[in-house]
UniProtKB/TrEMBL annotation:
Annotated binding of ATP, by residue: 50, 59, 110, 136, 144, 189, 223
Protein name stated in the entry: Threonylcarbamoyl-AMP synthase
Keyword Repressor applies: no
EC number: 2.7.7.87
Domain YrdC-like: start-end pairs: 5-193
């Protein structure tokens, strides 16, 4: 049975003993293991049923010397670190291979690193004095957890310490940037920090060519609820579907369709930050409800919405009338 606790020292004891621990971050809860403990890292892969070639993100304390982990940090990446760390931005850099277990990189020559903004995560990382891998604390490909209770529900039969840091304030995973080139960068996974936001900090151009780097969240299907999730390009099509479909439907949309129960409806807000905060929370709530189908209205195609849209497109199925 999982144990939910606020005792950081308990989490540190488990981590030092080679046991994975679920930790809070500002994005989602992560299933953590020290980067220098291969047995613990393998336990994380096993618990999640995660493919071994799927790389992990290394989480560091805000005062950690990155030069111990990576070969070089381009000037623009240093600017991004100064502006956005701690925070939901992950940088992919050339790793020092003798320092990073190939299990973490999926056998690549690069490593993904971020500095989480959650105060409990930072206190834990500082006290432990070793970076942690921390993929989302849920079975691979399923909806990420944004509360300690979500983690407990994801691993009901595991002996797992879950460090409770409240509900995650961001709610979707970090933006991942390929920062292995000195002259330009590329967004590999969208989050709330979008290209427009990055352009306010750096003048470095982005590029969009085919990228072979493997990073978390890039599979075609991911973040999936247990129930079927249909996404709709417009509210009108969604409302028509609800009217014609006799099944119980959990709706996430800009308005409540006629006939939809109040407890089966969540308002799709008009701000990406608000929708991101609620997205996984609502998908899990829908899974726990007596609804048979989940229906969600797609947000706009503009840049600031890309992180949320990316999650929905991977989690759901397009509705074709």
């Amino acid at each position: 049975m999982p144990l939910i606790t606020t005792e950081i020292d308990r989490a540190i004891r488990d981590l030092r003993a080679g046991k994975p621990v679920a930790i809070p971050t500002e994005t989602v809860y992560g299933l953590a293991a020290p980067i220098n403990n291969e047995k613990a890292i393998r336990a994380v892969f096993a618990m999640k049923d995660r493919p071994l070639n799927h790389p992990l993100i290394v989480h560091v304390a805000s005062n950690w010397d990155l030069n111990t982990l990576v070969e070089d940090i381009p000037a623009y990446a240093q600017q991004l670190i100064k502006k956005f760390w701690p925070g939901p931005l992950t940088l992919v850099l050339h790793c020092k291979r003798e320092q990073i277990n190939p299990l973490i990189t999926g056998g690549q020559t690069t490593v993904a690193i971020r500095c989480p903004a959650h105060p409990i995560a930072q206190e834990l990382l500082t006290k432990l004095d070793i970076p942690l891998v921390a993929p989302s604390a849920n079975p691979f490909g399923k909806v990420s957890p944004t509360t300690a209770q979500h983690v407990s529900e994801s691993f009901p039969n595991q002996e797992l310490t879950i460090l409770d840091g409240g509900r995650c304030t961001v709610g979707i995973e970090s933006t991942i940037i390929d920062a292995t080139h000195a002259e330009n960068y590329q967004i590999l996974r969208h989050g709330l920090i979008d290209e427009k936001t990055l352009a306010k900090v750096i003048a470095t151009p982005s590029f969009n060519h085919e990228n072979t780097l493997r990073v978390p969240g890039k599979l075609e299907s991911h973040y999936q609820p247990q129930k079927i999730l249909y996404y709709f390009t417009s509210y009108e099509i969604l409302a028509d579907f609800c009217q014609k479909n006799p099944d119980k439907i959990y709706v996430i949309a800009s308005d409540r369709p006629a006939g939809t129960r109040e407890d089966h409806f969540h308002l799709l807000e008009d701000h990406p930050e608000k929708v991101a905060f609620d997205l996984y929370y609502q998908l899990r709530k829908a899974d726990a409800s007596d609804a048979q189908i989940i229906a969600i209205e797609l947000p706009p195609t503009t840049g600031e919405w890309q992180g949320v849209r990316e999650r929905i497109l991977k989690a759901g199925t397009p509705y074709c009338s």
